[in-house]
């Protein structure tokens, strides 16, 4: 674990989330330290993705505050928000690549929009990022010509284009076979180790959680809040919540020291 | 059959109110993006603009020419039937020329564009929403109106007036053919009268209207696309809504322009 415990890069305080006046989760409080990999786990439909969308500013919370790198995204001006967004990289479940652009153009897009680098420099950085995720041979392909796993990798390369301090993943293992899923987990861990970026994952894959997460936030839809938070191996045995012990106990991975 | 309750009317009213509010906010955002595009023209996505220009303009030319040619023929045919009773067949030229250039040419082209471009814009953006591409753009700090709407808006504002001009010519030729065949008006005489009665102002009036129609069709198409839900049905619904709302907006706008024009003499 390469975290700097003195710095909290993400803080959620008394957060209530939902939509159309319906509360999905409430009283959510946790901090994420710099360089940490934290997973958000819960049953289907418990509000994991909704929580992520609130954190990255796509939805506005019903109550409470979300501070990213010391600033509340929902209270920022549009200009400040754009600056903040440059420090965050988000990888979506489907990859969310723009269908009208090639893979290289997709990766180059944030650089074109937010930097004044020359076309040559942008192309060089895009190639570097694609190499990092093992997609350099597919630079000129269109998103429709590559597999789901490749789309996720290309999406990750795009998320890394601006060297973000915070990386968010929405269901990174969804739709992947076990081998590709394990490879993607390793890739996330390697990127964190190289860049010391903070990683927030929304997932229901226990293998991913146990193999790469420093901590896990377990959401429980019956109580509409956090059931427990901590190291997954510790929570599996010592959690005060039976729901958490049962949920994490389904995995029998052993702790690697 | 379920009775319509007051609550249903209230819900419908609230939905309409929210949609109108959203559309006004969207138009505001697009206006800001237009100002930004004028101040920084190099930031306009040129390749996308050319792509939409080809899709909405070049690819629409054959259907516009065919429909407008037939429209001119129909107008001349109906005119010939009535005017021949009074021996005033030459006024077929006036009927076709004025109605095509001032009203029916730009209007018919706008209807075709709503069916082709408006629905395509809504479906494309709706599919992008379903694939989370719009979310990705938003979280990359990229302005959605600047990235997705401005290229379509510019392409339509260029393509529609040109298509309207082509449509006008095709309709005039259709009228000329029927005038010659049915009403025995010599082609030379038909052409001479057309040139004599028409002026640049009449032509530009129709072309100006087509620019307004282009703005309406693009904005409605893109807005309906952005309102799409994240499923296949949502994409279909947004495309249908774009066509229905687009046609309604074009008709209402055309009527308003006609009233304002008549008031102005």
Task: Report what the structure shows.
- Chain A has 257 residues and is an alpha/beta fold.
- Chain A folds into 2 domains: 181 residues, Rossmann fold, CATH 3.40.50.300; 68 residues, no CATH class.
- Chain A is 37% helix and 27% strand.
- Chain A has a 6-stranded mixed beta sheet, with helices on both faces. A 4-stranded antiparallel beta sheet of chain A has the order 2-1-4-5, covered by helices on one side.
- Chain B has 265 residues and is an all-alpha fold.
- Chain B has one domain.
- In chain B, 85% of the residues lie in helices and 0% in strands.
- Chain B contains 9 helices and no strands.
- In chain B, helix 1 packs across helix 6 and helix 3 runs parallel beside helix 6.
- The longest helix of chain B has 40 residues.
- The radius of gyration of chain B is 22 Å and the shape is elongated.
- The model of chain B has no long low-confidence stretch (mean pLDDT 91).
- Chains A and B meet through helix 2 and helix 3 of A and helix 5 of B.
Quick structural summary:
The complex is a heterodimer of chains A (257) and B (265). With 257 residues, chain A is α/β, with parallel strands linked by helices.
Rg from alpha-carbon coordinates of chain B = 22 Å
Tell me the β content of chain B.
under 5%
In spatial order, strands of the major sheet of chain A run 6-7-8-3-9-10
CATH superfamily of the largest domain in chain A: P-loop containing nucleotide triphosphate hydrolases
Q: Span between N and C termini of chain A?
A: 10 Å
Uncertain residue segments of chain A: none
Number of strands of chain B: 0
Could you give the count of β-strands of chain A? 10
Main CATH class of the largest domain in chain A: Alpha Beta
Largest β-sheet summary of chain B: none
* Helical content class of chain B: over 70%
Classification by helices and strands of chain A: alpha/beta
Counting H and I runs of at least 4 residues, what is the number of helices of chain B? 9
Supply the CATH architecture of the largest domain in chain A: 3-Layer(aba) Sandwich
Unreliable stretches of chain B (pLDDT < 50, length at least 5) are none
Oligomer: heterodimer
Number of domains of chain A: 2
């Amino acid at each position: 674990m390469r975290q700097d415990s003195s710095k909290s890069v993400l803080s959620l305080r008394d957060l209530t989330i939902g939509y159309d006046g319906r509360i999905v989760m409430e009283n959510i409080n946790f901090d994420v330290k710099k360089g940490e990999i934290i997973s958000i786990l819960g049953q289907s439909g418990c509000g994991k993705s909704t929580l992520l969308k609130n954190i990255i500013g796509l939805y506005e919370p019903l109550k409470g505050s979300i501070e990213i790198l010391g600033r509340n995204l929902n209270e920022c001006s549009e200009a400040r928000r754009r600056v903040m967004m440059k420090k965050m990289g988000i990888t979506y479940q489907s990859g969310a690549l723009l269908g009208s652009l090639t893979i290289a153009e997709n990766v180059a897009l944030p650089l074109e929009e937010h930097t004044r680098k020359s076309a040559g420099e942008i192309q060089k950085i895009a190639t570097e990022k694609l190499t990092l995720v093992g997609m350099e041979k597919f630079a000129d392909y269109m998103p429709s010509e590559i597999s789901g796993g490749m789309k996720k990798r290309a999406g990750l390369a795009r998320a890394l284009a601006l060297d973000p301090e915070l990386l968010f993943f929405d269901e990174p293992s969804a739709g992947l076979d076990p081998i590709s899923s394990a490879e993607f987990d390793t890739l996330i861990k390697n990127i964190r180790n190289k860049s010391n970026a903070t990683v927030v994952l929304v997932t229901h894959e226990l293998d991913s959680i146990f193999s790469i997460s420093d901590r896990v936030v377990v959401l429980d839809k019956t109580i509409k809040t956090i059931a427990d938070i901590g190291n997954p191996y510790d929570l599996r045995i010592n959690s005060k919540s039976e729901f958490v012990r049962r949920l994490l106990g389904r995995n029998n991975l052993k702790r690697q020291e | 059959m379920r009775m319509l309750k007051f609550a249903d009317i209230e819900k419908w009213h609230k939905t309409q109110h929210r949609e109108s509010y959203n559309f006004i906010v969207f138009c505001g955002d697009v206006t800001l993006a237009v100002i930004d595009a004028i101040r920084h023209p190099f930031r306009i996505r040129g390749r996308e603009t050319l792509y939409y220009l080809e899709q909405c303009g070049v690819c629409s030319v054959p259907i516009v020419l065919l429909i407008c040619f037939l429209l001119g023929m129909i107008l001349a045919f109906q005119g010939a039937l009535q005017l021949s009773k009074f021996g005033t067949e030459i006024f077929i030229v006036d009927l076709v020329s004025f109605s095509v250039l001032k009203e029916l040419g730009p209007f018919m082209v706008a209807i075709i564009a709503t069916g082709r471009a408006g629905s395509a814009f809504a479906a494309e953006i709706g599919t992008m929403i379903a694939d989370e591409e719009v979310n990705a753009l938003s979280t990359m700090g990229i302005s959605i109106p600047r990235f997705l709407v401005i290229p379509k808006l510019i392409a339509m504002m260029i393509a529609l007036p040109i298509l309207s001009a082509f449509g006008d010519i095709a309709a005039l030729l259709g009228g000329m053919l029927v005038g010659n065949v049915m009403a025995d008006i010599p082609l030379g005489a038909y052409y001479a009268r057309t040139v004599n009665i028409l002026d640049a102002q009449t032509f530009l009036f129709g072309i100006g209207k087509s620019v307004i129609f282009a703005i309406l069709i693009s904005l409605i198409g893109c807005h309906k696309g952005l309102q799409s839900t994240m499923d296949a049905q949502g994409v279909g619904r947004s495309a249908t809504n774009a066509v229905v709302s687009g046609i309604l907006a074009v008709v209402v706008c055309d009527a308003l322009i006609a009233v304002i024009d008549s008031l102005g003499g």
